[in-house]
Amino acid sequence: MFLGAPLSTEDLLFNIGLYARSSVLVKFLVMGKLYERIKDIPGVLVEFGTWYGHNLVLMENLRAIYEPFNKQRKIIGFDTFEGYKGQSREDKPSEVWRAGSYATGTDYRSYLAELLRVHEGNNVLGHVRGAHELVAGDVCETVPRYFSERRHLLVAFAYFDLGLYEPTKAALEAVLPHLVPGSVLLFDELTWPEAPGEATAFREVFAVANRPYRIEKDPLYPSKAIVTILA
Ligand SMILES: C[S@@+](CC[C@H](N)C(=O)[O-])C[C@H]1O[C@@H](n2cnc3c(N)ncnc32)[C@H](O)[C@@H]1O
């Protein structure tokens, strides 16, 4: 019905909710609720495993709604943009993690960068640029390097959507020193049976982290877990 919609492209975009299923709408609700929680916490917003950047666009527009004048709220996305690279012994073998799965195509990163620029331009203070950054490559290398080169960075929100043990562990270890009390981490697949590696990484890192935290299941989205740093 979407492809055969009797609406002009402009009307289609304005009425996009006509086609948003509950499984998509729930993402808007969850991200909106989490943004409300972190809006008073200083720091950047990051996503590990961005795929097409749906959450990055959502974050830019939530930023515009909740704190339109905060251009210091940088949004950073990490992905290979070439999909998965393989898995380790801690992961469950699955087609989901097959090499190349979730590849977006080589030019997609530029397309997404432009899309974020367009959204930024349409929002308040749109002439002030530079609120987004896309970092391509394996997070096992890019994330430790990115944060060791920016020791000053505070992270208010980090979305972990890698699903596998090694990249989740590398990203979590690198970001941990940059979290402040009140920072929120969202784990996409913490209780999904296909993704035991994500939970293993989480348990191992926090077992030695000396960072008190609270963990909750998201009430609307069963596999998603919300971790709030307490101190
Ligand atoms: C499930 S998808 C992310 C979906 C996205 N967060 C969303 O909600 O639309 C997982 C992403 O992680 C990326 N990924 C997997 N392993 C990675 C690694 N080692 N380094 C960087 N990105 C990786 C994949 O390329 C893929 O785009």
How is the secondary structure organized here?
Blueprint: H1 9-14, H2 22-38, E1 44-48, H3 54-66, E2 75-79, H4 108-122, E3 132-136, H5 139-148, E4 155-160, H6 165-175, E5 179-187, H7 196-209, E6 213-217, E7 225-229
Parallel strand pairs: 1-2, 1-4, 2-3, 4-5
Antiparallel strand pairs: 5-7, 6-7
Helix pairs in contact: 2-3, 3-4, 5-6, 6-7
The structure holds S-adenosylmethionine.
The site of S-adenosylmethionine has 19 residues, from helix 3, strand 2 and helix 5.
List its salient traits.
231 residues, alpha/beta, Rossmann fold, 7-stranded mixed β-sheet, 7 helices, 7 strands, globular, binds S-adenosylmethionine
Molecular structure report:
The protein has 231 residues and is α/β, with parallel strands linked by helices. The protein has one domain: Rossmann fold (3-Layer(aba) Sandwich), CATH 3.40.50.150. It has seven helices and seven strands; from the N terminus they run H-H-E-H-E-H-E-H-E-H-E-H-E-E. The chain has a seven-stranded mixed sheet with strand order 3-2-1-4-5-7-6, with helices on both faces. Helix 2 (22-38) packs across helix 3, helix 5 (139-148) packs parallel to helix 6 (165-175) and helix 6 (165-175) packs parallel to helix 7 (196-209). The chain is globular and about 55 Å long. The model has no long low-confidence stretch (mean pLDDT 96). Bound molecules: S-adenosylmethionine. S-adenosylmethionine binds next to helix 3, strand 2 and helix 5.
